[in-house]
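We append the chain.
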Amino acid sequence: MLISMDCLSFEEIKTRLSARTIGIAGCGGLGSNCAVALARVGIGSLILADFDIVTESNLNRQYYFFDQIGNKKVIALKQNIKRINSSCQIEIHDVKLRPEEIVSLFSKCDVIVEAFDHADQKKMLIETCIAKLPEIPVVCGIGLAGFGGNNLLETLQIDTIYICGDRQSEVLSSLPPLAPRVGIVANMQANQVLEILLKNT
């Protein structure tokens, strides 16, 4: 079902989103850009989890700035989001997520966004959510490396799991993650979150 601005004004959208909480697992290319997109449309609360620091190599695709190099990603991302939407409530966790942390940190979320770099981490989060948090939708990003191929990017739904991307282009030294494609998939994830939260409300 397409939710258009003809159906809901921006003020109505912000009002409906203001009471919602989204968990972001990973604050790299997908997570930082998805979190910013959600903050821009008025999401009420974000729970951000990542253990990494900002490096210069991150700046080609992640929502950080040169003067934040060396800072913890969760702290830097919170600062950046607050400059965009000061009313967004942001809870940060400097932690490498394992199944027990996923359950404890994200159990109160309306939607969980999977934004990890590696396939084994993605698999771990999806399996944990299916087993322990089956009622919470999970929006994943899988297949976003390289450039071009816009028509290959899509969203696949399997029960409460939504997979955004082409589901095949893994990051390699010869197929790096670049800002355009990473940003598209991150915004697909944010758009899918909106559809989940706003449809039939």
